Structure formats: structure tokens, C-alpha cells
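COMPLEX REQUEST
Ligand: zinc ion
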Amino acid sequence: MPDHEQDQGLQEARALLASARKVCVLTGAGVSAESGVPTFRGEEGLWKSFRAEELATPHAFRRDPRTVWEWYDWRRGRIRGCVPNPGHYALARLALGARSVRIVTQNVDGLHEVAAREAAGSRDPSPALPLEVHGSIFRVRCTSCTYRIPHRDRVRTESEAVLPRCPVCGSLLRPDVVWFGEALDSRVLEEAFESARGASVCLVAGTSALVQPAASVPLATLEGGGSVVEVNPADTPLTSMADVALRGPSGEILPRLVEGLLP
Ligand code: OAD
Ligand code: ZN
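STATUS: Structure written out below.
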């Protein structure tokens, strides 16, 4: 995209955001790409090297929990070494500013939260803490009871006998993420759609907008009469519905977008 077109898009997007009382932000794997977290789809995507249906499903975990945990332990190891990029920080600064902003993320990597806490410093980070609609890779939950706890450590996977177990009921613990074929947490989902419905702008960054129901979050903003701004190097099914589409990596675009807005 020529520079002047991108500048014009940025100005339009800033104008929409500047007059917005409420903003909903929807992010996907692309916002963490520049932090070194692999995306799911595309050339370097995770689902290219692994068959998702063999690993990220409740059925796979029942059949072979050791292999599923081994894969998650590997992913957690990769993510543990990653830090937020300028895109995460820009969104955190936007959410900590005067406007009412809700960050809804499909990412399970926790990088929005790290950025929120750093950007807040001694202030309260909570306005910038994301709603994690697909869960968190650094939390585990019991496969039988309601036990759920943050968990960042390495997981031993040499045999099924050493896999992590629930201290309450003894059943296997699993990553607290949403797998294929599973429903999203209905309260979290309702909150996401409510914030989208009430928003004058939905800023969508780094998602292929293919996975439902998250992909419909921006549609709720459109139905409520609001606008959609998309940040992505590539076209998505949402692009044709977006009021402004900013082409490029979110680590570069989001700081430029937000910098012109904040006092
Ligand atoms: P995808 O991997 O489907 O899409 C990543 C998107 O990021 C694509 O549209 C890329 O063009 C874009 N992208 C790549 N690099 C980028 C960059 N530097 N800046 C901005 N955008 C960039 O990831 P998601 O849309 O998040 O669900 O996938 C949605 C869900 O599918 C995931 O949450 C996961 C997966 O199955 C579960 O695990 C439940
Ligand atoms: Zn239990």
C-alpha cells in the first residue's frame, strides 16, 4: 500500500477512535507474531506442522493426554521466552487512557496482560487487562471438578503417571484453553459481545476472522451502528465490511495509530 494511502487510512481510523466513547478491541494470533509466537494459519502457522484435530481436542486428550501435554509444554516453553511487542503496548496505553476500551483476545499467550501491567506501572492495570475468550495457556483446570489455577511451570511428560493431577480429586489437569469442538465460557463470551454491541468502534487486529464465535464480535459493533477498523497485513473475510483497513504488521501500525490519539 502506498504511504499516502496508509497515512490517510490512519487519519480516518484516528478520527473514528477520537470521537468514540466506547471502543472494543478484538485481537488474534497476528498481534503476537512480532513477539515470536507462531500464528495458527498461514505459511509458518502452527496448524501446518501439527494436525490440530489430533492435539487440540478433548477427544485427543482422553485418548493420549501425554502427547497433548507434551505439545502444550513445548508451546508454553516457546511463549515463556516471548515478550510483548509495540502493538501490545499501544493497545495497553489506549485502554489505560481516558476512553472506555475493552480488549477481547483470542490469544492464550498472556502477552496483553504483561503489557498492561508494564504500561500501568504503579497505576491500576485492570482497564487494559484482556478478556481471554479462548482461555490461557498458563492456567490449568481439572478434567473432572471445578479446580482451576495459574500454572507457568514446566510439565513432566515422560509418562502418563507423572502428568499433573488435581489436588482436590486426583483427576488429570489440562490446559485451560478452548479446544476444537468445545464451547466458550458463556459469561466471558456474553461480556465480549456486550462490549462490542455498545462500542462505537471495534478495532480488530491480527486475526484471520475465521473462527467463530469470536469472528462475529466486530459484527455486533456493526449491527449496533458502530464502525470497524482492521489492522492486518492480509485480507480477511472482515475486510470488505471494515470502514478502514490498515495493511501491515500490528507492531508498526498500532503504535502509529494510538500515538496520534493520546494526549
Ligand atoms: P490465525 O493464525 O488464524 O490468523 C492470524 C492472522 O494474523 C492472519 O490474518 C494474518 O494475516 C495476521 N498476521 C500475521 N502477522 C501479523 C502481524 N505482524 N500483525 C498483524 N497481523 C498479522 O489466528 P487467529 O485469527 O487468532 O483458537 O485464530 C483464531 C483461533 O484459531 C485461535 O484463537 C485458535 C485457532 O484455532 C483456539 O485455539 C480455540
Ligand atoms: Zn479435580
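REMARKS: The longest helix spans residues 3-18. Residues 217 and 253 are 21 Å apart (CA to CA).
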